[in-house]
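[Meeting: bench + compute handoff]

Bench side (C.D.) handed over the final construct sequence. Compute side (W.E.) agreed to return the predicted structure before the next meeting so the bench team could plan truncations. Sequence as handed over:
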Amino acid sequence: MTTAPVPPPTARSAWTWIPSLYFAQGIPYVVVMTLSTVLYKNLRISNTDIALYTSWLYLPWVIKPLWSPLVDMFGRKRTWIVTLQFAIGLAFALVALTLPGPRFFQLSLAVFWLMAFSSATHDIAADGFYLLALKPGQQAAFVGVRSTFYRLATLTAQGGLVYLAGRWQDATGSVVQAWTYVFGLLAAIFLAAGTYHLLALPRPESDRPTASGQNLAREFFDVFAVFLRKPDILTILSFLLLYRLAESQALKLLSPFLLDSRAAGGLGLTTQQVGIVYGTVGIIALTIGGLLGGWVISLHGLKRWLWPMILATHVPIVAFLLLAIYQPTSLWVVGLALATEQFGYGFGFTAYMLYMMLVADGPHKTAHYAICTGFMALGMMLPGMGAGWIQDQVGYVKFFLWVLVCTVPSFIVITRLKIDPAFGRKSPR
């Protein structure tokens, strides 16, 4: 008796797993890189220490290309995804257990490191699965969807979970107890996510190990050699490293800026208010920006929209500068400024994602995409490490001025990119 071949996924079936997969991909990243800054600020850790030590947590995303070929070579990506989601759920539970202890800072950082390693490996598997399970036309059509749900995860963590932490602080009178509840909730969510994806993810025929078993070491290093031989590799690496140079510093200090007292140059918002401004107006703006970015690229291609998208990514940083100068007390004004930044980021980051897909195209898609995201993480990690020290030295106003200056290199390197005008455009039926 023969088994009928599994048909390739359709755009409709992709809706059952792409939103949930990229929401699950975004949660641990934003918890490690952003929610941790709110947590440590609530626990009275200094801005310098917050920026320095949480920036080191980028390292697993920076070095993940070193083991990305292993994800390609051994095991199905579907299996990697489900297993790592359960592992991330366990890590969330461990953070909840460390917070009440006397050495919470060191122990929670250690668990965040393990979580970051698991999350970075999950990214490799999820992005590779996306490239294998969808046809090229579907990949372009869904890039806005995956970007939107990834950023929805960001706002869920920065908005909804921060709001809950503030509410639970008021209810329990304990910062530690409130954050313990938050990480317990995250653990339950990821156990549910792992179970759902065990059932919902499709089984594409192309999702199979690539290792031939003949010369594994040579196959491993060939992946990197092929990537480094790509045409215009120096321009590619410059773009990957510099596109987020400004944003990497601004986002690292945004939560401390919102929470710091007005006397210290911040906006003096409560933890609960930070959750509101990130989780209401911002979430609507981000959703519109991400979906719009994917839609316009699918109509006209990446090359046509590259300049508008890089402007949309960088220009809204002016909103942070204005907030630092005028320190408005109206939550609506603050929310509108953050919504402007979220819309621009959701719209503009679509171009960055599509360009990484363009670079990764070829026989080693999963590993090459992981290498691209590793350079992206390095471009976030190094500038972010010193952002807290810079802000402590010059204050928030001059800090955001410095961030605006840091947008210039990305505008320079974009003039050297070579992109097929048809890339990203959805083929007519």
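W.E. noted at the follow-up: The chain has a mean pLDDT of 83. C.D. will use this when planning the next construct.
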